Each structure stands twice: as structure tokens, then as C-alpha cells.
């Protein structure tokens, strides 16, 4: 009898574990494409608008590149802050390097952790340079 209960408990645990995402993986197909962050108006203390993320894959469908950018006003001028990221995606993390095109050719290391829930995307950047500490939430698919 004791063995039967252990079997029932073990089967229940397997069923529960199979229905949850223990390792926090995100399917590349869910996050590929163009994303807008319409609710984001401040990044690291700077007023921003037109925050946009492009998630791109190679011909095999693996995510290999991100473009992240936003606009700011500097007096009468409109300045674009664009960042090109190259790397690899696994689980829910994109790891690689990037250039902040407005700062020249310096290359920075970066890790971008993605979240995806109810059709919205979020990112948290950790690494070097101007993207370190940038967190964006409530990204929605851009209508192109």
C-alpha cells in the first residue's frame, strides 16, 4: 500500500512539473519581430520616446541579433539612440556584444534577459556601457 501511495505522489509531481516552466525558457518564435514600448518615457533619467526593439534570427530561426533604440530631444534637435547587439539566445537570455552607434565603435558586453507573458515582452539588460541597467516592460508587437 505504501508503494502505491509513493507511486501516486511521484506521478502527480511529474504531471505538475510537466505543466510548469521550471527553467524559464521562451520560444524564439514568440519574441521574433518588431516591438514597441509605448509606455516607456524614461530610460536612466532621460526622457525618451519611440522606444523600439527588433528581434532577428538567422535562416535557421535562431535569434542572433537585436536592435534597440529610442529618440530623445536635445533642445531643438531630435537625437536617435540606437544599439546593435550581436550574440546568441538560449532559454530566456541573449548574450553577446553591442555597439552604441552614437558613441562610436566601442564594443560592450551585454546579457539581455527576456520576459514574455500575455503577448507582451520585457527585457532587462546587464553588462557594460549605456545599456547596463536598462529595463523595459510592456512591449507590444509593432504594427508595420
What's the topology here?
Elements: H1 2-19, H2 28-31, E1 33-36, E2 42-43, E3 46-47, E4 49-57, E5 63-74, E6 77-90, E7 93-100, E8 107-117, E9 120-127, E10 135-141
Antiparallel strand pairs: 1-4, 1-10, 2-3, 4-5, 5-6, 6-7, 7-8, 8-9, 9-10
Describe this structure in words.
The protein has 144 residues and is α+β, with helices and mostly antiparallel strands. The protein has a single domain (23-141), classed as Calycin beta-barrel core domain (Lipocalin, Beta Barrel), CATH 2.40.128.20. Helices cover 15% and strands 53% of the residues. It is built from two helices and ten strands. It has helices at 2-19, 28-31; strands spanning 33-36, 42-43, 46-47, 49-57, 63-74, 77-90, 93-100, 107-117, 120-127, 135-141. The strands form two sheets. Strands 1-4-5-6-7-8-9-10 form an eight-stranded antiparallel β-barrel. Strand 5 (63-74) and strand 6 form a beta hairpin. Mean pLDDT is 86; it is low at 4-23.
The CATH class designation is Mainly Beta
Second-tier CATH architecture: Beta Barrel
- Give the radius of gyration: 20 Å
Q: List the domain count as a whole number.
A: 1
Strand order of the largest sheet: 1-4-5-6-7-8-9-10
Helix content: 10-25%
Mean of pLDDT:
86
- Describe the biggest sheet? 8 strands, antiparallel, barrel
**Uncertain stretches:** 4-23
Give the count of helical stretches. 2
Provide the CATH superfamily. Answer: Calycin beta-barrel core domain
Instruction: Predict the CATH topology.
Output: Lipocalin
Written as H for each helix and E for each strand, in order along the chain, the element string is: HHEEEEEEEEEE
- The CA-CA distance between the termini, in Å, is 62 Å
| Portion in strands | over 45%
Structural class estimated from helices and strands = alpha+beta
- Backbone shape: globular
> How many β-strand runs?
10
Amino acid at each position: 500500500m505504501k508503494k502505491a501511495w509513493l507511486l501516486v505522489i511521484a506521478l502527480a509531481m511529474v504531471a505538475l512539473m510537466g505543466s510548469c516552466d521550471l527553467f524559464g525558457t521562451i520560444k524564439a518564435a514568440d519574441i521574433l519581430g518588431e516591438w514597441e514600448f509605448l509606455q516607456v518615457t524614461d530610460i536612466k533619467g532621460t526622457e525618451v520616446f519611440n522606444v523600439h526593439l527588433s528581434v532577428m534570427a538567422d535562416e535557421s530561426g535562431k535569434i542572433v541579433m537585436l536592435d534597440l533604440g529610442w529618440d530623445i530631444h536635445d533642445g531643438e534637435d531630435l537625437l536617435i539612440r540606437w544599439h546593435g547587439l550581436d550574440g546568441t539566445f538560449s532559454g530566456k537570455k541573449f548574450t553577446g556584444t553591442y555597439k552604441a552607434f552614437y558613441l562610436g565603435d566601442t564594443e560592450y558586453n551585454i546579457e539581455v534577459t527576456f520576459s514574455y507573458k500575455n503577448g507582451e515582452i520585457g527585457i532587462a539588460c546587464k553588462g557594460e556601457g549605456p545599456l547596463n541597467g536598462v529595463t523595459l516592460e510592456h512591449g507590444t508587437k509593432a504594427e508595420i
